C-alpha cells in the first residue's frame, strides 16, 4: 500500500519534471529496439569518454600552471623544475584525490582514442559510410584527427623530459610538411621559446581543440539525427537502406529508454576508469632539464608509436612518413566516394576488406614494434620480412573467403530458383525474372543484372 503510494508520487513528480522541462521534445529520435546492443552505440561511448575528459580536465585546470619558470620548492626540496611539472607533482601528491583525477584523465584519453578506433573500424567494416551517411563519415574523420590532436597537445603539459622530447619529434614531422609545415610553424612555435610552445599547446589543449571537437560533435550528432541509425550490414543492395515495416513499428523512444541505457554504460565506464586508476596510478616522469636524470628513450603515447617506428625505418624521411600518413587520411576521408558498391556487408566488399585489414595489421604491428624497440633503426630487409607477410596472408585469406562465399551464394540462389521455378539468373541464357519475387528479390534481381 505504502509502496504503491510511493510509486504514484514518484511517477507524478517525474511526469511534472518531464512536462515542464519539455524533455521529450528535445530528445533524439526513437530507435529500433534491436539497437539495444553496445555495438550500435560505439559513437555514444566515445562521446561519453569526451564528456569525462572535459569534466576531469576542468578540475585539473584549477591547479595546473602552464608555466616554464622554475617553481622553486617541490616535494620539500629545492628544485629547478618548471612550474608546469611541479604543479602536476602537486596535483598528484597534495591535492585530495588528485592522483586519481589526473590518472583517470590520462587513461580516459587512451580510452577515448581506443573507443574512437573501435567506432571507426566498426563503421568501416559494416559500410555505415555509404549513402546517405557520407558526411557523417567525413565529420567523423575530422573528429578522429582532433581527438589525436588533443592527445598530442596534452602530452607536453606535465613538461616531463619524455613528453618534451616526443613533442619535438612530432613537431619535426608536422613542420616538415611541404607548404603546410612553414605555415603551421609560427602558429605552433610562437616566439620559439619553451614558454611559447607550452602556452600554444596549452591553449590548443584546453580551448581551441575542445571547441572544435564540440562543434564537430554537434554536426556529427545532427547528421545522425537526420539520417537515423544505420541498419545492419547486408548483401542486399536495396533492402537495407531503410528499416523493414516491422522494424519501423518496433522503435523505442530515445527518452527515457535509450538515454538510461546509455547512462548505464556511462556509469560502468567511469567506474572502470576509476578502478584502473586507483590500482595503477600514473607515475610522473622527471622534468625537462633534469641533468641528474638517466637519459631516457624518446617515446610518444601508444597511439603515435606506429608513426615513430615508421621514421626509424632506414631511408624513411620525416616528409615520407608524414606523406604516407596523409595518404591514409585522405583515403579514410574520401572512402564513401571510393567504395561505390551498393552492398554494405564486408563479404561483398573484398577489396575494402583487404585494405581495412591491412591498415589494421599495419597499425597493430607498428605499434607493438615501436613499443618494443623505440628509436632503433630498422633495415629494409627486416621491414619486408615483418610487413610483407601481413599483406600476403591477408590477400590470400580474403581472396579464399570471397571465392567460397560467391560459390556458395550462387549455389543457394540456383537452388532457390529451382524451388521457385524462376528463370536462371546465372550462366548462359540468363534472363531477368518477370514474375513476383520472394522477399530477397532485390538481391536476385541485382545478381541477374550482373552487379555481383
Ligand atoms: C571523437 C570521436 C567521435 C565521436 C564522439 C562520435 C560520436 C558518434 C555518435 C554519438 C554517433 C551516433 C551513433 C553511435 O553512437 O554510434 C556516431 C555515429 C556515426 N559516426 Fe561517429 N563519432 C566519432 C568519431 C567518428 C569517426 C572517426 C568516424 C569515421 C571516420 C565516425 C563515423 C560515424 C558514422 C558514419 C556514424 C553513423 C553510424 C550509424 O548510423 O550507425 N565517427 N558517432
In short:
The chain is mainly alpha-helical and 452 residues long. The protein contains 17 helices and 4 strands. Helix 3 runs antiparallel to helix 5.
Give a structural overview.
Mean pLDDT is 87; it is low at 424-452. This protein starts with a helix and ends with a helix. The chain has helices at residues 2-21, 23-26, 42-61, 83-93, 98-125, 134-156, 161-175, 180-189, 194-227, 245-249, 254-279, 305-312, 318-333, 335-338, 350-372, 380-420, 441-448, and strands spanning 31-32, 70-74, 77-82, 251-252. It is built from 17 helices and 4 strands. A hairpin with a 2-residue loop joins β2 (70-74) and β3 (77-82). The protein is mainly alpha-helical and 452 residues long. It is globular and about 85 Å long. It is 65% helix and 3% strand. Protoporphyrin IX containing FE binds at residues 41-44, 46-47, 50, 116, 119-120, 123, 128-129, 133, 136-137, 140-141, 143-144, 147, 217, 220-221, 224, 229-230.
Topology:
Layout: H1 2-21, H2 23-26, E1 31-32, H3 42-61, E2 70-74, E3 77-82, H4 83-93, H5 98-125, H6 134-156, H7 161-175, H8 180-189, H9 194-227, H10 245-249, E4 251-252, H11 254-279, H12 305-312, H13 318-333, H14 335-338, H15 350-372, H16 380-420, H17 441-448
Antiparallel strand pairs: 1-4, 2-3
Helix pairs in contact: 3-5, 3-11, 4-5, 5-6, 5-11, 6-7, 6-9, 12-15, 15-16
Residues 41-44, 46-47, 50, 116, 119-120, 123, 128-129, 133, 136-137, 140-141, 143-144, 147, 217, 220-221, 224, 229-230 line the site of protoporphyrin IX containing FE.
